[in-house]
Write a structure and sequence with these properties.
Blueprint (H helix, E strand, L loop, with lengths): L1 H11 L9 H10 L1 E5 L4 E3 L9 E15 L5 E7 L4 E2 L2 H5 L6 E14 H10 L1 H27 L2 H11 L8 H8 L3 H13 L3 E4 L2 E4 L2 H10 L1
Antiparallel strand pairs: 1-6, 2-6, 3-4, 3-5, 3-6, 7-8
Helix pairs in contact: 1-2, 4-5, 6-8, 6-9, 7-8
């Protein structure tokens, strides 16, 4: 019963299931598969599991979703935190995972298999409404990511990461580089330039924002 209550609360916190009654949520909990991952462990791999993907919801920890080029370069698409749902596209279209995911830190995740979730969606259109809301929000995020990668300088991308996503400040410079689509050395150079300008303060891996207004101006400059 404890797990059912906990998982019900977790599901209700996502757009997909926010509109469901407790009885409906219990049906979703019944098909959920709890999984635990160690730091660096792979959840799923791009191009795999056609027709058999699962919707994932983070319960604890931190998960990154990323693309990998033929040369091995990575671009982080998003960091997923407790309550975040992801891997929805292949669940709805029946295709393969369009990106890979691994655990940045020890994480627990609920997996909802496609073949069990789709019949529930047929019965409860509230899930479909929630899915549209979540996909719309995801589209906004991807549009913003494309803008950053194609139109903004590295300095502006780093500034935006620091100002708009403060939870990412604890990441290593290599992890930040995969978030903004550049090399670690460029992130390092940008951070030290921002420090020289009095915008931030660096203490080892810790970054303290001293002047949010200047960060906003750098972002606005593009």
């Amino acid at each position: 019963m404890v797990n059912r209550t906990r998982y019900r609360d977790l599901l209700r916190g996502t757009p997909y299931f926010a509109r469901l009654s407790d009885a409906m949520l219990d049906e979703v909990v019944a098909i959920a598969i709890p999984r635990r991952y160690g730091q660096g462990q792979r959840l799923f791999t791009e191009g795999h599991n056609e027709g058999h993907c699962s919707l994932h919801i983070v319960e604890t920890g931190l998960v990154r979703v990323f693309k990998t080029s033929a040369e091995g370069r990575e671009q982080v698409l998003r960091l997923m935190r407790p309550g975040d749902a992801f891997a929805d596209v292949p669940v709805f279209d029946g295709g393969t995972y369009p990106a890979s995911a691994d655990a940045v830190e020890p994480s627990s995740v609920l997996a909802l298999p496609r073949d069990a979730l789709m019949p529930l969606m047929d019965r409860y259109p509230e899930i479909a409404v929630g899915a549209l809301q979540n996909l719309a929000e995801r589209l906004r995020h991807m549009t913003s990511l494309v803008e950053d990668l194609s139109l903004r300088r590295v300095m502006s991308r780093v500034a935006r990461l620091l100002l708009e996503h403060p939870d990412e400040i604890h990441l290593t410079q290599s992890q930040m580089a995969t978030m903004v689509g550049t090399a670690r050395e460029m992130v390092n150079r940008s951070l030290h330039t921002l420090e020289d300008r009095g915008v931030i303060q660096l203490r080892g891996q810790e970054i303290r924002i001293l002047d949010p207004q200047k960060l906003a101006e750098i972002i606005e400059a593009g």
